[in-house]
Amino acid sequence: MAIRALQPKGFGRPLGMYSHGMEANGLVVVAGQVGTTPDGGLAGPDVEAQTRQVFENVATVVGAAGCTMRDVIRLQTFLVSADDIAGYMAARQEVFPRYFPSGVYPPNTLLVISRLVRPEFRVEVEALAVRPTRPAAPGAARRRPQPPRRPARRR
């Protein structure tokens, strides 16, 4: 099984000892993304600005694996205050039509926690994606699976 770390171009180093994402056999796991810009600055002090940046960061990491946001199959969101839910939802309403134009959104678990790794962070989002399989080239021969062979009988 091939496993590779994802380090998107122009992305700063992670905030700790982890990778922004990993890809293994088409499964893409995105580490929790916070509202920092590629140069490491905070997108803004409010949850709306940070949420918009978080989803831009998630899109960049899945893009490094050859995916788009349409390949995301699960999101997990962490907010530091229940008071931020409305702002988070408003930012999602703004950006999701661009990322999911069909209107089909991945499942999302929303958790309110006491804090994130830095006190200025209001939101963090993890994601799972599946890299799309590429169709076989036209005219490419397809092998049928062979039935298992029976062991030869001894006499």
Rounded to the nearest angstrom, the distance between the terminal CA atoms is: 41 Å
CATH structural class: Alpha Beta
Number of helices: 2
Structural class by helix and strand composition: alpha+beta
Q: Could you give a short account of the major beta sheet?
A: 6 strands, mixed
* Rg value: 20 Å
Describe the structure.
With 155 residues, this protein is an alpha+beta fold. It has a single domain, classed as RutC-like (60s Ribosomal Protein L30, Chain: A). The chain is built from two helices and six strands; from the N terminus they run E-E-E-H-E-H-E-E. A six-stranded mixed sheet has the order 1-2-3-6-4-5, covered by helices on one side. Helix 2 links the parallel strand 4 and strand 5. Helix 1 (47-64) runs parallel beside helix 2. The radius of gyration is 20 Å and the shape is elongated. The N and C termini lie far apart (41 Å). 27% of the residues are buried. The model is unreliable at 140-144 (pLDDT under 50).
